[in-house]
Amino acid sequence: MTLKTYTSNKRGKSTELARKLGVPTTLISQWANGVRKIPAERCLEIEKATLGVVRCEELRPDIDWSYLRGTQQ
Fold first, then answer.
1. Range of the domain at 40
2. Cβ proximity of 13 and 7 under 8 Å
3. What global pTM score does this model have?
């Protein structure tokens, strides 16, 4: 699921995620709308905070997450 979809699904999701990550809600919005690129280290935090609903692979497809996770075939 994309970050934009996740934050749009239920009222307050952006605020909740911002609180969990310790960032302003506006930054979550900027990430979700593609205004700012999500730093790689934040992708892991977002995946954990969303309990895996939003995956790193969806947030930053330019990074070889399978290699970093050690699941490369």
1. 3-69
2. yes
3. 0.89
Query: Each residue of 3-46: pLDDT tens digit?
Result: 999 999 888 899 999 999 999 999 999 999 999 999 999 999 99
List, as one string, the DSSP characters of 7-42: HHHSTTHHHHHHHHHTS-HHHHHHHHTTSSPPPHHH
CATH code of the domain containing 36: 1.10.260.40
CA distance 49 to 17: 7
Structural domain count of the chain: 1
What CA–CA distances, in Å, run from 68 to 37, 39, 57, 73? 19, 15, 11, 12
| Contact between 5 and 37 (Cβ < 8 Å) | no
What tokens appear for 56 in the block?
A: 């790193």
